[in-house]
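Researcher: For the record, we're logging two predictions in this thread. I'll number them. Prediction 1 follows.
Model: Prediction 1, sequence and structure:
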Amino acid sequence: MGDFSFKTLEYTRPDFENIKKEIEVLTKQVKNAGSFEDVQAAMNTVEELSSKLETQAVIAFIRHTLDTTDEFYEKENETVDNELPLLMVNLTEFNKGLLESPYREDINREYGEELLKRIQRGLDSFDPVLVPYMQEEAKLTNAYQKLMATAKIDFDGQVLNLYGVQKYFEHPDREMRRKAFKAYSDFYNSNEEKMEEIFAELVKIRNKMGKALGHENFIPLGYLQQGRSDYGQKEVAAFREQVRKEIVPLCSKLYEAQAKRIGVDSLMVYDEKFIFPDGNAEPIGDEAYLVEEARKMYHDLSPETGDFIDFMIDHDLMDLVNKPNKASTGYMTSLKDYKAPFVFSCFNNTIGDMQVLTHELGHAFAGYEAMRHQKTSEYFSPSTDICEIHSMAMEQFSYPYAEQFFGDKADKFKFAHLQEAMTFVPFGVAVDEFQHIMYANPELTPKERTLEWHKLEEKYMPWRKYNEDEFMDRGGFWYHKLHIFLYPFYYINYTLTTMGAMELKKRFEENKDQAWEDYLNLCRAGASKSYLELLKVANLSVPFEEGSVAKAISYPKEVLLSEIEKMNS
């Protein structure tokens, strides 16, 4: 790896044709192998080829999202999007050779049984017939992302992007909040037709992909793409119902208390982010200050996180400042050749900035550890229903350090952050149920789709009021959630993993050393086990089992209701 900086990393377009030829040769080597050593040598070479290719593809992707108007990286990203599905045809043949190999037991002994199971799931979710659909899907998702990234909203004498205007959702002046939310809403309303077209095509294409693999629609394929092996739609539906019974009533209480606290008769959507009458907690410094405080925090938290944050800062592996034409998102990705995570965000001087320094860096820390403890890159990143435990638990572990970031407003941060962890969950399960409805009912018109979202808001967010915003009131809010467009069936993971994060939070308060050991073991395990097995690694409950949601939220519920009582006394 050596000394490197992301800004100066050289990008070279991968030679896709040559890589395909090399994989064809290696496939023959596996099929004609006379020993396990021959198979392992081929596996190692494919891993090396894949790592180099993925690293270059990720560099192009990051630089494209840093400036979505940069034509060079936009075209490179498009090229990668077109070529990767074609390359998957060759990789599929190689992986079939591994599954049919007489040395399967040797592979299991060397890497554990999960590797071939992951390979089988990959084969179950791909067929060469999908290639043109995948290429078209990438074009559509890029179109949506560019539409969001290039948003220009005239507000308060400035031209703002989506992250910039959201800062005003926490403004102390209620009229300013109302106008800001209306400006945000108007952007989506004015682009409704474009978004309708993009999503309608995505539903059509994804359902064709599902049917091409023998499914009734896209949903089973969506689950396979998320790497789900030991639960399905039935379990997820049972979890959503637990949320409706246990968390929705709690959120109603939290918002009722908030309305009284900020002095409004009826809490409107533009009031939801305004938690305290004298204003919300805000970070007390700029990006450089926050990053330096994050360095101190991670050094204090553990030796492992100290090494990690130094690596991230020293190698320029974070881009956090909000800039024009920067993609309106936050993510962590990996540069495998360098065993280096990369974190991307758009700071806007809200508590969300602190969440990036814990949530996305939680993902990054887990990747950093797995890349240093697992034998194969197949195990570097588990399915997303585990990955989000890494990030959300790290958010909770940061609470003792809140004063470094928020000064005398630290308690405000902790309350607001914990409340949002709870109030988010009903929205998260609504996003999941919405997607199930969309792919199961592709004949719905655009306006009927939006009506379905309106119904889900009534079911999971009965407190939600839009104050005569016609577009939002009829269900337009779903358009802003990029996961619905870009990452189908991902969003439920945030809610499932909230349960695990809350269990770790309680454990961290009771026995920090034990909680950290469980968390570190989970990070280092990567994807080497299945979802349910990884929960056992961290001593966590299964969120689908009846009563698990009530158990997981019991501690944060107690904390929040106790804090509300203190505020009212």
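Researcher: Logged. Prediction 2.
Model: Prediction 2, sequence and structure:
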Amino acid sequence: MTTFGIDLGTTYSCIAHIDADGRTVISKNADGDEVTPSAVFFESASNVIVGKQAKLVAKISPDQVVTLIKRSMGQPGVTLTFHGVAHTPESISALILKELVQAVEQTTDEKVTDVVITVPAYFGIREREATRNAGVIAGLNVLNLVPEPVAAALHYEALSAGQDQTILVYDLGGGTFDTTVIQMRGHDISVVCTEGDHELGGADWDERIAGWLLERFMADNPESGAQQSEEFLQQLANEAEDIKRSLSRMEAKGHSMSFDGGKARVELTRVELERMTADLLDRTFQMTQRTIDTARQKGVTTFDQVLLVGGSSRMPAVVAGLRERFGFEPRLTDPESAVAKGAARFALIESVKIALPDRDDRTDAEPAAVSVVAAQLGISTEQVETLAAKRVTSVVPRAFGVQVQNKRHPDADGDGNIVDHILRANDALPAKPPTRQYYTSSPDQTEIELPVYEQAGEVESARVDANRQIGTGLISGLPPLRQGSPIDVFVEMGETGALRVRAVELTTGREALVELQVDGLTQAEVAQARIAVAQYAVGN
């Protein structure tokens, strides 16, 4: 059975697989395009439209179209209601996945069941679990999640004939940004370090352009009500993306606007665009610098290649800035489809490893077992051997820790609380740091609460408000404890990003175990959403 890699993007998505000849194939949608806009139009209570037409309809039905939903993945309490039905970011993302899958099944004889879905490298526990749930709600078997830069590196490895390389991936997508250092050595692909922002991407450039267009229109038509028209503002947003794309090829782009009898003709130059968005680009370079500094601390001082990924990396200012600030000569290789193509390779690797669960990566598999797997997957035994030997490892995306009291700490809040990080960002996975010991803060405690937090900002901080709570453990039913009773806390993260926190009260030996993926949607909510999504007719 064919396994598929899905690039579930903020602004565009696509799906790919490896064919019987070992070639990566991007499946085209009903419009004949390789990428599908991540836009969902709730046309009625029973019908939704996903993709290009949804973006176009947004001009006349802005309240019924959802875009950039990936930026809300994993955010608690986010619901959007259409035709009396409440939707979460997971269920809306599931509709995008459903459209991608439907396009494959309508144009080929393939049945899409087993998939790998990409996530930004900097996605935390909540966002990753939300992405996995989106796949489940869409009726898919999610084999794994793969960081987007890792997927891009897998695609690049295929193009570079498997040479040993250390690469820096600069991934500026439509709604997210990551910069990641990856080493490729033999059969091993390992992430050295990563940093990013899942609320920074090409859409922010589009927003600046749309704002400039509106400002120029209002300057020529000061009495116009254009800025109160959601339809006009949505139109500017759509046109802004086209202007941005044009300015990657042209020095200037003219544009005409009209609303309720008012008209304006403007011209935006590439120089002006770069001036008005310089701060956005600088944010990506600041993160790139921190990634380079972290890599240096880990012994990586040179890069064989700098890869540009994501459609927004086509902007000339990106290449010019990387060359000027860092001395890099970046390489642009399939920026829009590299992630999906790499995800397809990762999906095939995962399917082989699942089919050969008892195989040691460093030893030969049973020839008969390899032959069976090759027949099941429609690939050669040589490909099975190569893929089974492949080892892909990543790092902890953010710092994780527990809330404790330390009134003397400079970052303590009014109640004396801080977040003590036990797992640090860019620790290699699997990560199992030494046990941390804490003590009860008041006498006669009969229960101990263990709030688990994840780093929220770009830089690690002990301040509680610079982190976000992702779970809670509780040790209850204790006899009254003396103040200062010891508690051991163990925090570890497996290769797939699953977080496990265990606390043991040493006087009684009682413990609390927090196994996160995360306290997001419950299994019942996922099942309910799956039923609701299955009832929609999805069109393109």
